[in-house]
Protein backbone atom coordinates (compact mmCIF):
# COMPACT_ATOMS: atom_id res chain seq x y z
CA UNK A 1 0.00 0.00 0.00
CA UNK A 2 1.48 3.41 -0.99
CA UNK A 3 2.52 5.73 1.82
CA UNK A 4 0.24 8.79 1.98
CA UNK A 5 1.90 12.11 1.19
CA UNK A 6 2.36 14.91 3.69
CA UNK A 7 -0.06 17.69 2.79
CA UNK A 8 0.23 21.04 4.56
CA UNK A 9 -1.84 24.21 4.25
CA UNK A 10 -2.63 27.34 6.25
CA UNK A 11 -5.58 27.12 8.63
CA UNK A 12 -7.97 29.51 10.36
CA UNK A 13 -5.38 30.88 12.82
CA UNK A 14 -2.75 31.42 10.14
CA UNK A 15 -0.75 28.40 11.29
CA UNK A 16 0.21 25.31 9.34
CA UNK A 17 -2.28 22.45 9.35
CA UNK A 18 -0.92 19.00 8.63
CA UNK A 19 -2.65 16.37 6.54
CA UNK A 20 -2.07 13.15 4.65
CA UNK A 21 -3.06 12.86 1.02
CA UNK A 22 -3.87 9.37 -0.22
CA UNK A 23 -3.35 9.19 -3.98
CA UNK A 24 -4.69 6.23 -5.97
CA UNK A 25 -2.29 4.30 -8.16
CA UNK A 26 -4.01 5.51 -11.34
CA UNK A 27 -5.94 8.61 -12.36
CA UNK A 28 -8.21 9.73 -9.53
CA UNK A 29 -11.95 9.20 -9.95
CA UNK A 30 -12.49 12.19 -7.70
CA UNK A 31 -11.26 13.73 -4.45
CA UNK A 32 -12.61 13.30 -0.94
CA UNK A 33 -11.99 15.57 2.08
CA UNK A 34 -12.37 14.03 5.55
CA UNK A 35 -13.14 15.91 8.79
CA UNK A 36 -12.45 14.17 12.11
CA UNK A 37 -14.45 14.35 15.35
CA UNK A 38 -14.14 16.82 18.25
CA UNK A 39 -10.71 16.56 20.00
CA UNK A 40 -9.77 13.64 17.69
CA UNK A 41 -7.20 13.64 14.89
CA UNK A 42 -6.66 12.59 11.31
CA UNK A 43 -5.03 9.40 12.63
CA UNK A 44 -8.15 8.09 14.35
CA UNK A 45 -8.90 4.68 12.87
CA UNK A 46 -12.24 5.97 11.54
CA UNK A 47 -10.34 8.41 9.32
CA UNK A 48 -7.44 6.19 8.31
CA UNK A 49 -9.65 3.24 7.34
CA UNK A 50 -11.89 5.44 5.23
CA UNK A 51 -8.99 7.19 3.52
CA UNK A 52 -7.30 3.90 2.63
CA UNK A 53 -10.57 2.39 1.42
CA UNK A 54 -11.27 5.42 -0.76
CA UNK A 55 -7.72 5.30 -2.12
CA UNK A 56 -8.13 1.61 -3.00
CA UNK A 57 -11.36 2.48 -4.81
CA UNK A 58 -9.59 5.06 -6.96
CA UNK A 59 -10.28 8.28 -5.07
CA UNK A 60 -7.76 10.82 -3.77
CA UNK A 61 -8.50 11.31 -0.06
CA UNK A 62 -7.24 14.04 2.27
CA UNK A 63 -7.41 13.68 6.04
CA UNK A 64 -5.98 16.46 8.20
CA UNK A 65 -5.76 17.69 11.79
CA UNK A 66 -7.90 20.65 12.76
CA UNK A 67 -6.17 23.65 14.32
CA UNK A 68 -4.35 22.79 17.56
CA UNK A 69 -4.83 19.03 17.28
CA UNK A 70 -2.55 16.20 16.18
CA UNK A 71 0.37 17.52 14.15
CA UNK A 72 -1.27 20.83 13.25
CA UNK A 73 -0.19 24.17 14.63
CA UNK A 74 -2.32 26.67 16.48
CA UNK A 75 -3.98 26.80 19.87
CA UNK A 76 -6.87 24.37 20.36
CA UNK A 77 -8.09 26.41 23.33
CA UNK A 78 -9.13 29.22 21.00
CA UNK A 79 -10.77 26.85 18.54
CA UNK A 80 -14.46 27.16 17.67
CA UNK A 81 -16.89 25.54 15.27
CA UNK A 82 -16.43 28.63 13.08
CA UNK A 83 -12.69 27.99 13.02
CA UNK A 84 -13.27 24.36 12.05
CA UNK A 85 -15.46 25.49 9.18
CA UNK A 86 -12.71 27.82 7.99
CA UNK A 87 -10.14 25.02 8.29
CA UNK A 88 -12.35 22.88 6.05
CA UNK A 89 -12.84 25.59 3.45
CA UNK A 90 -9.09 26.16 3.28
CA UNK A 91 -8.47 22.42 2.99
CA UNK A 92 -10.91 22.24 0.07
CA UNK A 93 -9.21 25.20 -1.61
CA UNK A 94 -5.82 23.53 -1.16
CA UNK A 95 -7.13 20.37 -2.83
CA UNK A 96 -8.21 22.42 -5.83
CA UNK A 97 -4.78 24.05 -5.99
CA UNK A 98 -3.30 20.55 -6.02
CA UNK A 99 -5.46 19.72 -9.04
CA UNK A 100 -8.20 17.80 -7.23
CA UNK A 101 -11.72 19.12 -7.48
CA UNK A 102 -14.62 19.22 -7.23
CA UNK A 103 -14.80 16.93 -4.25
CA UNK A 104 -16.86 14.90 -1.82
CA UNK A 105 -16.87 15.79 1.86
CA UNK A 106 -17.06 13.37 4.81
CA UNK A 107 -17.45 14.61 8.39
CA UNK A 108 -17.52 12.54 11.58
CA UNK A 109 -19.38 13.65 14.73
CA UNK A 110 -18.83 17.39 15.35
CA UNK A 111 -16.67 17.29 12.22
CA UNK A 112 -19.87 16.25 10.44
CA UNK A 113 -21.70 19.31 11.70
CA UNK A 114 -18.77 21.47 10.58
CA UNK A 115 -18.86 19.71 7.19
CA UNK A 116 -22.53 20.63 6.75
CA UNK A 117 -21.79 24.26 7.57
CA UNK A 118 -18.72 24.33 5.29
CA UNK A 119 -20.55 22.66 2.38
CA UNK A 120 -23.01 25.54 2.31
CA UNK A 121 -20.06 27.82 1.48
CA UNK A 122 -18.21 25.52 -0.91
CA UNK A 123 -19.55 25.04 -4.39
CA UNK A 124 -16.62 22.71 -5.02
CA UNK A 125 -18.31 20.16 -2.72
CA UNK A 126 -20.65 18.08 -4.84
CA UNK A 127 -21.66 15.42 -2.34
CA UNK A 128 -21.73 15.23 1.45
CA UNK A 129 -21.55 12.36 3.96
CA UNK A 130 -22.05 12.82 7.70
CA UNK A 131 -21.11 10.06 10.15
CA UNK A 132 -22.59 9.98 13.66
CA UNK A 133 -23.11 13.72 13.41
CA UNK A 134 -25.19 15.87 15.77
CA UNK A 135 -28.07 17.85 14.30
CA UNK A 136 -27.25 20.71 16.69
CA UNK A 137 -23.74 21.88 17.64
CA UNK A 138 -25.03 22.65 21.15
CA UNK A 139 -24.95 18.88 21.65
CA UNK A 140 -21.21 19.09 22.31
CA UNK A 141 -21.86 20.90 25.60
CA UNK A 142 -22.72 17.63 27.35
CA UNK A 143 -19.20 16.37 26.62
CA UNK A 144 -17.76 19.18 28.74
CA UNK A 145 -18.94 17.54 31.96
CA UNK A 146 -19.43 19.79 34.96
CA UNK A 147 -17.12 22.50 33.66
CA UNK A 148 -19.05 25.60 32.64
CA UNK A 149 -17.03 27.85 30.38
CA UNK A 150 -19.57 30.62 30.85
CA UNK A 151 -19.24 30.58 34.63
CA UNK A 152 -15.77 32.03 34.90
CA UNK A 153 -16.17 33.76 38.26
CA UNK A 154 -14.14 36.94 37.94
CA UNK A 155 -14.65 37.10 34.19
CA UNK A 156 -14.03 35.17 30.98
CA UNK A 157 -10.98 32.99 31.21
CA UNK A 158 -9.58 29.78 29.84
CA UNK A 159 -10.90 26.65 31.53
CA UNK A 160 -9.74 23.04 31.53
CA UNK A 161 -12.36 20.50 30.53
CA UNK A 162 -12.15 16.73 30.53
CA UNK A 163 -13.41 14.82 27.51
CA UNK A 164 -13.18 11.02 27.35
CA UNK A 165 -10.56 11.07 30.09
CA UNK A 166 -8.33 13.65 28.37
CA UNK A 167 -7.88 17.26 29.49
CA UNK A 168 -8.18 20.21 27.12
CA UNK A 169 -8.14 23.96 27.59
CA UNK A 170 -10.99 25.95 26.04
CA UNK A 171 -11.90 29.60 25.95
CA UNK A 172 -15.44 30.85 26.70
CA UNK A 173 -15.61 31.86 23.03
CA UNK A 174 -16.08 28.18 22.17
CA UNK A 175 -19.48 28.13 23.89
CA UNK A 176 -20.41 31.57 22.60
CA UNK A 177 -19.69 30.51 19.03
CA UNK A 178 -22.07 27.53 19.27
CA UNK A 179 -24.97 29.99 19.29
CA UNK A 180 -24.01 31.22 15.83
CA UNK A 181 -24.72 27.95 14.00
CA UNK A 182 -27.91 26.16 13.02
CA UNK A 183 -27.02 22.82 11.44
CA UNK A 184 -30.59 21.90 10.48
CA UNK A 185 -31.09 25.22 8.71
CA UNK A 186 -27.86 24.61 6.82
CA UNK A 187 -28.98 21.10 5.84
CA UNK A 188 -32.36 22.39 4.67
CA UNK A 189 -30.68 25.01 2.48
CA UNK A 190 -28.06 22.65 1.07
CA UNK A 191 -28.60 21.84 -2.59
CA UNK A 192 -26.16 18.91 -2.70
CA UNK A 193 -26.70 15.15 -2.16
CA UNK A 194 -26.42 14.19 1.51
CA UNK A 195 -25.83 10.73 2.96
CA UNK A 196 -26.41 10.30 6.71
CA UNK A 197 -24.78 7.28 8.39
CA UNK A 198 -25.43 6.52 12.05
CA UNK A 199 -25.39 3.51 14.34
CA UNK A 200 -28.46 2.87 16.46
CA UNK A 201 -26.21 1.98 19.40
CA UNK A 202 -24.22 5.25 19.27
CA UNK A 203 -23.56 6.13 22.91
CA UNK A 204 -22.33 9.69 22.24
CA UNK A 205 -24.73 11.11 19.65
CA UNK A 206 -28.21 9.62 19.80
CA UNK A 207 -29.70 8.12 16.65
CA UNK A 208 -32.47 10.74 16.76
CA UNK A 209 -29.93 13.25 15.45
CA UNK A 210 -29.59 11.18 12.26
CA UNK A 211 -33.35 11.19 11.80
CA UNK A 212 -33.44 14.97 12.22
CA UNK A 213 -30.63 15.53 9.71
CA UNK A 214 -32.21 13.24 7.15
CA UNK A 215 -35.67 14.75 7.60
CA UNK A 216 -34.35 18.30 7.17
CA UNK A 217 -32.38 17.57 4.00
CA UNK A 218 -33.40 17.91 0.38
CA UNK A 219 -33.38 15.15 -2.19
CA UNK A 220 -31.25 13.40 -3.18
CA UNK A 221 -30.63 12.10 0.33
CA UNK A 222 -30.21 8.76 2.06
CA UNK A 223 -30.12 7.45 5.62
CA UNK A 224 -28.04 4.37 6.41
CA UNK A 225 -28.85 3.03 9.88
CA UNK A 226 -26.42 0.49 11.30
CA UNK A 227 -27.66 -1.71 14.12
CA UNK A 228 -24.17 -1.85 15.63
CA UNK A 229 -21.09 0.31 15.34
CA UNK A 230 -21.11 2.72 18.24
CA UNK A 231 -19.89 6.25 17.76
CA UNK A 232 -16.53 5.36 16.21
CA UNK A 233 -17.54 2.39 14.02
CA UNK A 234 -14.67 0.53 15.64
CA UNK A 235 -15.46 -3.05 14.65
CA UNK A 236 -14.27 -4.38 11.32
CA UNK A 237 -17.84 -5.18 10.27
CA UNK A 238 -19.07 -1.66 11.05
CA UNK A 239 -16.10 -0.06 9.27
CA UNK A 240 -16.69 -2.19 6.18
CA UNK A 241 -20.39 -1.32 6.17
CA UNK A 242 -19.63 2.39 6.42
CA UNK A 243 -17.07 2.27 3.61
CA UNK A 244 -19.39 0.26 1.34
CA UNK A 245 -22.23 2.74 1.86
CA UNK A 246 -19.93 5.70 1.16
CA UNK A 247 -18.46 4.18 -2.00
CA UNK A 248 -21.92 3.41 -3.35
CA UNK A 249 -23.03 6.96 -2.57
CA UNK A 250 -20.05 8.65 -4.21
CA UNK A 251 -20.33 6.37 -7.24
CA UNK A 252 -23.88 7.67 -7.64
CA UNK A 253 -23.36 11.36 -6.80
CA UNK A 254 -19.83 12.45 -7.74
Structural account:
There is one protein chain. This protein is α/β, with parallel strands linked by helices. The chain has a single domain, classed as 3-Layer(aba) Sandwich (Rossmann fold), CATH 3.40.50.1820. The protein is built from 7 helices and 10 strands. The protein has an 8-stranded mixed beta sheet, with helices on both faces. The protein has a two-stranded antiparallel sheet with strand order 7-8. Strand 1 and strand 2 form a beta hairpin. Helix 1 packs across helix 7 and helix 2 crosses helix 3. The model has no long low-confidence stretch (mean pLDDT 92).
Q: What is the gyration radius calculated from CA atoms?
A: 17 Å
- Rounded to the nearest angstrom, the distance between the terminal CA atoms is 25 Å
Give the biggest sheet: 8 strands, mixed
What's the architecture in CATH terms? 3-Layer(aba) Sandwich
CATH topology: Rossmann fold
Can you count the beta strands? 10
Q: What's the helix-strand series?
A: EEEHEHEHEEEHHEHEH
| Tally of separate domains | 1
Percent strand: 15-25%
- Shape verdict: globular
Structural class: alpha/beta
**The CATH homology group name:** Alpha/Beta hydrolase fold, catalytic domain
Across the major sheet, the strand order is 1-2-4-3-5-6-9-10
* Number of distinct helices: 7
Amino acid sequence: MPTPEHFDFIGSQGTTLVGRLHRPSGPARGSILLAHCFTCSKDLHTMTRLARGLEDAGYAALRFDFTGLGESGGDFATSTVSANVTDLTRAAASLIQEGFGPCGLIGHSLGGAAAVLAASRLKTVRSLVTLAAPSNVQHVRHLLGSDDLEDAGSGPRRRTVTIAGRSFDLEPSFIEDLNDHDVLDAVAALDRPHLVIHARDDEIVDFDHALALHHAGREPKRLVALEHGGHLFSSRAAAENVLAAILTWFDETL
